[in-house]
Specification:
249 residues; alpha+beta; Structural Genomics Hypothetical 15.5 Kd Protein In mrcA-pckA Intergenic Region, Chain A; Pseudouridine synthase; 2 domains; 4-stranded antiparallel beta sheet; 6 helices; 21% helix; elongated
Length: 249
């Protein structure tokens, strides 16, 4: 017997929090009867569970790492008919969705799953999950500006949390530089807006690491399945005490 909201999240209906909202709204039925009490326990092997009148199907859990190309929507559908990340998952029969966001113009590492609880754990702000990017910017910002990024900059939606920032490569002619930045927030276009705040716009952005995962062995547009050990370590990592991010310029 397991909690109903956990079963719904595991079935890929939504995150656990949103599943709780569905239950409270009376949109979930167990064996033909509406269940609106949080904490109700069910047997997923024996009970018939429906959301909005439609039976849920407990799919096998899958956890994927995709090397997303630039110019692709990190979503499962797009009303404008543009390419979406699920277009690059041949052979995956489960209904998966992205873990967090990765902008249309940004390439790199993106996780996808049908496990709502897993997705929530890795994206919930309190877990402060680290994501590392390589940003190619116009010009070469002074080290003091990278210190400013590391300490936090003021954006229109508030001050950013501390980040880890360092140079990776600098053009000898000073036309551009490659900078690595690690953040644990998930605001829209955050890295680009952070560099805009110090007046060094990003010309290319690539997510190279998510927690301990990297793109090693995964060419652009390709994907691989995470191992059971990787899934376990990600969940363990989400629950560990956080280390303070800083700068190393």
């Amino acid at each position: 017997m397991e909690r109903l909201q956990k079963i719904l999240a595991q079935a890929g209906v939504a995150s656990r929090r949103k599943c709780e909202d569905l239950i409270k709204a009376g949109r979930v039925e167990v064996n033909g009867e509406v269940v609106s009490t949080l904490g109700a326990k069910v047997d997923p092997a024996a009970d018939e569970i429906a959301v909005n009148g439609r039976p849920i199907r407990l799919e096998e859990k899958v956890y994927l790492l995709l090397h997303k190309p630039k110019g692709v929507i990190a979503s499962v559908t797009d009303p404008k008919g543009r390419k979406v990340v699920t277009d690059y998952l041949p052979g995956v029969k489960q209904r998966v969705y992205p873990v967090g966001r990765l902008d249309y113009d940004t390439e790199g590492l993106l996780l996808l799953t049908n496990d709502g609880e897993f997705s929530q754990r890795l994206t919930h702000p309190k877990h402060e999950f680290p994501k590392t990017y390589h940003a190619t910017v116009k010009g070469v910002p002074h080290g003091s500006l990278l210190d400013k990024l590391a300490a936090g900059v003021e954006l229109e939606d508030g001050m950013t949390a501390p980040a880890a920032v360092e140079y990776v490569d600098i053009d000898p002619n000073g036309k551009q530089s490659l900078i690595e930045i690690t953040i644990h927030e998930g605001r829209n276009r955050q890295v680009r807006r952070m560099f805009e705040a110090i007046h060094y716009p990003v010309v290319k952005l690539r997510r190279v690491r998510f927690g301990f995962l990297t793109l090693e062995g995964v060419p652009r547009t390709k994907y691989r399945h995470l191992t059971k050990q990787e899934v376990k370590e990600l969940l363990d990592m989400a629950g560990r005490p956080k280390q303070k991010l800083g700068t190393d310029t």
